[in-house]
Amino acid sequence: MAKSSATKDALALFQSLRSAYAATPTNLKIIDLYVVFAIFTALIQVVYMALVGSFPFNSFLSGVLSCIGTAVLAVCLRIQVNKENKEFKDLPPERAFADFVLCNLVLHLVIMNFLG
Amino acid sequence: MNSQVPLPITRMAKVLEFLVLILSVLICGEAVIFKPISDSHRSAALELFNPTHGSSLEETYEALRTFEVLGIEKQPDLRAATCASVVDTLSSPSALKDLFQALRVNGLLNCELKKKTFAGIAPRLKDAVKSASSLLDYYYSVGSLVLIKGLSSDVDVHLESADSVFRAIKALSQSDGRWRYSSNNPESSTYAAGIALESLAGVISLASSEIDQSLISMVKNDISKLLDDLEKYDDGAYYFDEKLVDAHGHQGPLSASSAVVRGITAFAAVSAENLNLPGEKILGLARFLLGVGVPGNAKDLYYQIEALASLENNRVSIPLILSLPTSVLSLTRKDQLKVNVNTILGAAAPSLTIKLRQIFSSGSKDASVIDQDLKFDHKNAVHYLDALPKDIDVGSYIFTFEIVLHDSEHKMIYATGGRTKVPIYVTGVIKVDNAEISVLDSDLGNVETRKKLDLAGENSISLSANHLQKLRLLFQLTSPLGHALKPHQAFLKLRHESKVEHIFVVGNSGIQFEIILDFLGLVEKFFYLSGRYDIQLTVGDAVMENSFFQPLGSVELDLPEPPEKASRPPPQAVDPSLRFGPKAEIAHIFRAPEKKPPTNLSYAFLALVLLPFIGFLVGLLRLGVNLKNFPTSSAPATSAILFHLAIAAVLSLYLLFWLKLNLFTTLKALGFLGVFLLFVGHRTLSHLASTSAKLKSA
């Protein structure tokens, strides 16, 4: 019984999380989706490395860091765009997006140099 | 390390070469054989001179003149082209030097020229003679006039003011008999003296009236002063040294001597007076010119041949050259001593007798006086001696010959140069006999074993000895006349199995050669190495026709055990072919390539990596993303499109950077793209910001 109640609780928690998340603005959802996409791509590369070996290690590193880096930048963007963050109230989202683009370009210049 | 080893060896070889050179010079001393001009000069001339259409008239003249003197057929195909060039030069107002060269070539080729050509040139040349200021101007203009005079008798080439021209040229002479090129050049040159004499000879032949005798005797005086400056070699060759180094081509002893010889002979040909030139010096000059051998370049060959040709036909004294077909005579074959006498160009000499005066033996200073006449073989034009003097044995000698002309008139014409010394090598078969090798007891000297040797044939004796015994080798060398001969080399060589070698010099007393090896005293030298030793005997000499280098057999040596401190045999010299041969090949080791995963797996993961991206796109669709916020009015739309394009451009630049560009080109391009991106990005985003602000306020 206790087990089923625990499952129920977990389901209830999940339900409430989902309903709470449904209220999130679409543009934040897009960013979340992007972060998930980047993380999954990185994960697949890690799995590949585990299967095959880390021979062109720089290539592996640049591939994974590219994904992780862009995910982190996307999280930063999400923080700045979120309207509930009062800290960034004065910062227009366009400015945040410009930062995101610039950082991504710099990040990928380094990544390309490291790719070999 | 190894690369430094050959250096001392080559240096040593050079030193040896030098020593041999010095020795040969010392041995030959003043006795050198000069050979007259022969076929080797002809083949050299054909090789060196290659007059083609491109070569200048001067080169063509030198080639043709050399061919003419050497009696080589002219190439007919050359004539047409050269004549065209000659006509071209003569009919156009060319420089004095070119005119002179063209006339010289014409003199050899006899090109068909119009008579008017000469008539047109002659006055120009006469003006040039009058206005000439340098020696070369005189040389070219006077020389040209002389050439015209020889070709056509119709043209008036006579110089009215010959005396003054003569004086003008003479004014350039120096007190030592040499000449200056021009009055404002203080340097005097021997080559210039030759040219000046040739010009003066030309002036004399062109003079319309007799030249003042006092002028000619002054020049005669100059010539004798010039001849006083002659330098002498030990072998009786005389030459003029050219001290002046200047811009007039390459001038050395050969060109200077050649020019003076040509000048003196030309002057002697036209002056009525007897120049009283010493025959010895004329002969010495001929010897110098012949002693050059076959020169290596065309210019030198021309100088040599031209000077020899003018000596051959000169009026003063014609040098006769004594030469030997071979200077090595074999006593065993009973070779005859043969002597040729020719003029320098190889023509036959007048009737004469050669006397053998003296014979110097190379070893001793004293000479045996022979005074024997050589017989003359009319068929082969060769003087020969029936048999060598009785007391001539093998060895090297210096024979002294003297040429005696039959006709007393010839004595005025020909220069024979007194006695001529010639090195002669007499060789022969040396008799080798009474050869034996034996093993002796050390204390008493009793003979243990004795083996006869036949040094002319093969030997393979085998002996055995211990350290208390001696090895004795005996043989006799007798020259054809029964005298003792001390050969340059008489060596006995013992060679151990381990290739350690010991060489001993075999001494002699008279005809008997003997060497005794006392093994007791030699054990140390032999490094206490017992075992088989091969025996080799070398006897050799330059005059010995049957020099030999023979294995005699072997001796089995039984030597005591080495004590503690005995020296080890030296390491044997490495075979030079091993030392300088190819080195072992170097095998390069490369890092083995990393093992690569199967391609299918890599492709599968490529597809797998694309899955999240597809998931991202599907997710976007589910979220209902749209582009409604994209600006619609034209200007912001353009900048928005440009913004996206610029981002795409930067990303493709990164792709190119990965594929082929280097960091510097990439950064340069990125600089420009970045500024553009900043500009359009700013416009787009500020437009978006303003629209969203309007929305809020609305």
From TrEMBL, chain A:
Keywords per UniProt = Apoptosis, Endoplasmic reticulum, Membrane, Transmembrane, Transmembrane helix
Q: Which residues cross the membrane?
A: 32-53, 60-81, 96-115
Output the Pfam families linked to this UniProt entry. DAD (PF02109)
Intracellular or extracellular location(s): Endoplasmic reticulum membrane
Decide whether keyword Iron-sulfur is in the record.
Answer: no
One GO BP on record is: protein N-linked glycosylation
Specify the superkingdom: Eukaryota
Q: In which pathway does it act?
A: Protein modification; protein glycosylation
Instruction: List each coiled-coil range.
Output: none
User: What's this protein's family per the entry?
Assistant: Belongs to the DAD/OST2 family.
Q: How does it assemble?
A: Component of the oligosaccharyltransferase (OST) complex.
Q: What is this protein called?
A: Dolichyl-diphosphooligosaccharide--protein glycosyltransferase subunit DAD1
Q: Which organism is it from?
A: Anisodus acutangulus
From TrEMBL, chain B:
- List membrane-spanning regions: 12-34, 601-625, 637-657, 663-680
Q: Quick one: a GO biological-process term for this protein?
A: protein N-linked glycosylation
Q: How does it sit in the membrane?
A: Multi-pass membrane protein
Give the pathway.
Answer: Protein modification; protein glycosylation
Question: Which residue ranges does the record assign to the Ribophorin II N-terminal domain?
Answer: 37-312
Ribophorin II second domain location, by residue?
320-426
Origin: domain of life: Eukaryota
Q: Which UniProt keywords apply?
A: Endoplasmic reticulum, Membrane, Signal, Transmembrane, Transmembrane helix
Name the major location.
endoplasmic reticulum
Complex and partners: Component of the oligosaccharyltransferase (OST) complex.
| Name of the protein in question | Dolichyl-diphosphooligosaccharide--protein glycosyltransferase subunit 2
Q: Which organism is it from?
A: Anisodus acutangulus
